[in-house]
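Subject: Interface between my chains keeps coming out wrong

I've been trying for a while to get a sensible model of this assembly. When I model each chain on its own everything looks fine, but I need the whole thing in one frame so I can look at the contacts. Pasting all components below, labels as-is. Any help appreciated, I'm running out of ideas.
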Amino acid sequence: MTKPHSLVAMFTVSLLASCLALAQQGPGGGQQVPPAQPGRGGGQGRGQAAPRPMSFFVTSVGMGKGGDLGGLAGADAHCLALATAVGAGNHTWHAYLSTQARPGQPAVNARDRIGQGPWYNTSLTQLGQPQNAIISQDLSELHGDTLIQAQRGSNLFKQSARNEKGEVIHGVGDAPPVQHDILTGSQTDGRAFTDNADHTCNNWTSSGAGSAQVGHSDRIGNMNASWNSSHATTGCSQQALESTGGAGLFYCFAVN
Amino acid sequence: MTKNRSQVAAFTVSFLLGSCLLLAQQNAAQRNPMTFFVTSVPIGDGGNLGGLAGADAHCQKLATAVGAGNRTWHAYLSTQDRPGKPAINARDRIGTGPWYSQKGEMIARDLAHLHGDTHELARLGNNLNKLTGFTEKGETVPGLYDYADPRDNDWEYVKTTPFSNRHEMLTGTQPDGRAFTGTDLDYTCDNWTSNKDPDPQQVQTQGQGQGRGGALGAAPGRPNAQIGFPDRNGGGNGSWNSSHGTRGCSQAALPRTHGVGMFYCFAIN
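Reply #2:
Try treating it as a single job with all components included. I did that and got this:
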């Protein structure tokens, strides 16, 4: 009595599983999956020079209050705390965030806060010597200031945009939760928005009303490949950020 | 009791199976037909594709094998101007879009979106990425760090290791989708007819990237092809169509920078 019942249950479950798999893949899916392997460091190739000190990372965790980061000062302090925890507290760290002009307060452009580069991600030892990847040579390459630079893009991509612990940020197609929405409050050129709408969760003080512009650390989503200005969030609460594939993470750059 | 239970079971099975089939059918019905793919296999003779005609025929053959031969397929490849022959731009060969992957996602709305013709479009980028840049069979192209494999530069190994990184697509193209013009340097493996490698003495002395396997990129006397990445990961930039050059044009030379001679195919109708 119990046994047939559990058999039916098992069959039902497996049917459901294959159904879900079919729905996800669509027809013509069914590709081979390679054996699980740890990813390599972000280097361009093996056998390169000794790694440079980390001067770029994506925060491994958000601050937990949605778009309320305690302003730029709070976000910078979060960068420093995370960097310090992995032994990189000897740099001055700034969050890549813009703020909008308000009465008595001029706008702040994220690109003006991060030094001159070059910036490197954390170094990893996975195949051979420790190595790390350059994120970008300078501000112009990072933001595509010339047309050809913009068409090419920088070296900030899913495998190089690691958190301070060297982990890849989960993006589209990875195990949930996807956390690829990175708060920037910036336009594609790295500058603050100049219209009246909210693009910065009220200059990073709101965890309720408002909206923030985000980029994608995996450069996938919303029909573009923007790392810093892909779309707006639906709100500023932690829940709102999570609903579109975010966690309130942001980019941190060492300015020295 | 037994009857009751088997009725429940039958109902459960038929309900689930039914909704499952319905879901799968919907999936098929809503899908945009494929008008873009990455070749699942290379032609196999390095940068010698038999010219543009040979490359187009390869696209057509692969498309036909998956039931998409009713369209006219062109390879996304440029050729350079040579005496008596004007240059051909890859972007002028692929129709006007929009183009859709094997799974129905839009790659780009039009030529301007695909290539970033305005500064803002270029900064934003198009929708070609690792999760849309499928082969005609719907396979993801193995890319950077998918499979940590110390021999992924060795063709003898790569050709029997389907998960090994092979994300470099031949394009022979500048980032704007146009040919390299007014230069004797090779960016197209002699307009896709050459499988030659550079003189071994030149390999170590000229051009950028003096890393493992010798220099890469265009230089005097170096057979070479410009490449891009469907996964947008690598090469010091994320360019899908014009990241860097190769170390030569032989089949064995292409894997030294992580390609095997695959390329993009677009339906022009």
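Reply #3:
Confirming on my end. The longest helix of chain B spans residues 2-30.
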